[in-house]
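Hi all, long-time lurker, first post. I run a small reading group and we've been trying to get comfortable going from sequence to structure in the token notation. Rather than ask abstract questions, I figured I'd post a concrete chain and ask someone more experienced to write out its structure so we can walk through it together at our next meeting. Sequence below, copied exactly:
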Amino acid sequence: MSILWTLRKHIDAIEQREEDAQRRKAREVPHTIREEGGARRRQPTAPEPPPQRYICRCCDTISNISHYCPKCLADTMVPYDEQDEG
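-- Answer (accepted) --
Happy to help. Here is the structure in token form:
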């Protein structure tokens, strides 16, 4: 924070409080929803997709590493689709 920010609190305290309230409200709004009656609840978040998995063309090692196989240290990793197996 700058010195001007601190001085502004003392010079124009009312406007500073209003701006602080607006910032606080802006931070809280994306995370909460107002229900009827004024109660708050968390917004449901979408589940994260599973991480992309890769399989080595030489030794069939499955890993999250996309370039080099951690077992045979070769640049042989290709995307792995678990639905194809089975």
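A couple of things your group might point at:
The helical segments are 3-11, 13-28.
The CA atoms of residues 43 and 52 lie 27 Å apart.
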